[in-house]
Specification:
The complex is a heterodimer of chains A (96) and B (407). Chain A has 96 residues and is an all-alpha fold. Chain A has a single domain, classed as ACP-like (Non-ribosomal Peptide Synthetase Peptidyl Carrier Protein, Chain A, Orthogonal Bundle). Chain A contains 4 helices and no strands. In chain A, helix 1 crosses helix 2 and helix 1 packs across helix 4. Chain A is globular and about 35 Å long. The relative contact order of chain A is 0.18. Chain B is an alpha/beta fold. Chain B has 14 helices and 14 strands. In chain B, strand 13 and strand 14 form a beta hairpin. Classes of the chains: A mainly alpha (96), B alpha/beta (407). At the A-B interface, helix 2 and helix 3 of A face helix 9 of B.
Chain lengths: 96, 407
Amino acid sequence: MASQPTQTREDSVAERVLKIIADNQKKDVSLVTVESSFEELNIDSMDAVNIVFALENEFNINVPDEEMKNIRSVRDIVEGVGKLVAERPTDGPKAA
Amino acid sequence: MRRAVVTGIGVLCAIGRNLAEFRESLRIGRDGASPLHNPEPGGAPWNMRFTVAGQVREFNATDHFDPKAADMLDRFAQFAVIAGREAVRNSGIEWTPELRESAAIVTGSCIGGQSTEDKGFVEVYRRGRPRPHPMTIPKTMANAGASALAMEFGVTGPSFTVATACASSNHAIGIASNMVRSGMCDVVLAGGSEATFSEGVLLAWEAMRVVSPTVCRPFSKDRNGMMLGEGAAMLVIESLQHAQARGARPLAEIAGFGMSSDAHHVTQPSAEGASRAIARALADAQLPPHAIGYVNAHGTGTTVNDATETRAIHLAFGDHAPRLAVSSTKSMHGHTLGAAGAIESAATILSLRDSFLPPTIHYSEPDPECDLDYVPNESRGWDGEYAISNSFAFGGLNAVLALRRLP
């Protein structure tokens, strides 16, 4: 479940996010687009938590609990991660 | 079938070091939340997304056990013994050789001695020690509480532990009451205990994002998760004849027990599954839905649980649902996992015996998806005869007890 960084630096944030979602949902990445709905990808609330966990590790970001309820689509995830990556402090999230 | 009654209760949790303190806290709606702290002497402060918890504060094992005995037990097993001692003392049971041989012990625990295990693994993985402490296995096993209780009282009858996550001790009490009702045992000491607080376990809960970063507000529209708690409750359950023969005054009857499995999803609860367990508890007690006055809810404070549980109550009770009082005492003592069913059964028995409904504290705003009477913020009097106590576990395993006030 926990994805190790497997992407090359050339991958855009969006591509890396889509790969992580595909990996978690055990679907071919070609089936996952920014326009995909959670329903199409069978993403339930526990899947969303698992995906965000993988994204936190991949991008070295911290997604607060309050943000979770705003995540309703793949687009929300891509945009949210993009924002957090842009704001990312140099020392990363707290050590766990 | 024989009748199973409760003749003694022991409790230890964030809102009471004993039954009397626990009862007073339920009555006044005491908030058991305190700043999350690492109970390990000299342990580093914890830094989590959640900052409060229902911890048992100022607990010194050596106030209750000699130092050697304290070392042999994980905190969760210590809690079980302390609650068991109070339950036995309150019941007035006198241990004869015959009773020791026939009596049983049934405990519930979700995570067993995971703080011992966590500590042992830190030694190995972080500090590079070759192996953890030799007592790691016997302190970690989920039945360590049952075994410690058996040794404490010299009970040599059937003893075992049920592990069904957050329904563990409701399953334990239900099975124990059925052992009494069937005639297998005259006396069973049953309940559950949990010591939830160690770093690895807490971080795993944090990763699941079901713990409130602020305040636990079950059934309130602005609820945002549970508060973790710890503690124990143990009940002395015996046959009505056995209690009467020794002149004991029962506190309540365990009138029915219902179980079900959702067979649906590992973390998403099902209203249908939960309502089947409620309906089976009522059928087992031979009660119509309108006989019930109070529901001690599972009421974790998560968005999904509380809405689903409300739907389950509507399904099981139909037209009677709006007339029920429903409260979550987890709002006060936190979610004590494998001890939850036992602590909440104790609360429900007190509500019957002492004629008050414990409140759901921190309730601030009605939610259209949670449209029942949740006894918001303040306890109130009632004189109903029957109540149920719900426990629903991750993995979709449900256990509901029907309890009866006795004159």
